[in-house]
Amino acid sequence: MSQLKAIPGKYYYVIESGSTDNLPTHILSHLQQQRPNLVQVYSVDQCDVILVLCPIISRAGTDIDAALKKLNDLSAFKPAIFIVLHQTFDPERVVLDSSTFVKRMNTLTVDCLFFDTRLLRCNINDEALDKIVTCFKHQTIANLPIIGTFLIRLLSFLSKTILNLPFIGPCWNRLSSFISQTFIGDLWNQLPSIMSQNKKRQDSDEERSA
Predict the structure, then answer these.
(1) I want to staple 113 with a disulfide (CB 3.0 to 4.6 A). Which of 42, 51, 120, 133 is the partner?
(2) Where does the source fall among the domains of life (predicted)?
(3) What is the fold, at CATH topology level, of the domain defined by 11-135?
(4) What burial class does residue 181 get, using C-beta atoms within 10 Å of its C-beta: 0-12 exposed, 13-18 middle, 19+ buried?
């Protein structure tokens, strides 16, 4: 069974082993919506992961072997996401797990169903796309310079001024509790640590200046 650890980088390179028409657009569009920090590059040397699009045209084993050779010729060791595309009009079609054909370390293999030039709406595609997205780590606030700097300065200001007012503190606590339960909760929970690190840097700068 092929495995792939979480990818910390954001650069991906795409290989198409056969005619895929508009399928890459649908797959990459979904990926970019879920991980907007990702960037497609056009050199394998610049990428953190390789996305392989492998449509099954003749036989699964033969087509996968050809795509795998194409991948390994470019890089035998870089992380890869191997997307096997099966053409069918039946969204309930059962396909063999293609990971049994892919004997390569640090590689995730998923199966997708498509017809004509579009992915089908089905569970197998939903699961495959979720697995692909999960491979890419969330970009944290600390790694987003503009947003991170703004939030750090804003919260630093609030903590020193407004939050000391008696009628503001309880409201802020309720807001914090609400935000922590929403989809940005993970990012929100990072802010205290980021603020603490920022304060230490400021204190260190002040000591050096003195």
Answers:
(1) 120
(2) Eukaryota
(3) Rossmann fold (3.40.50)
(4) exposed
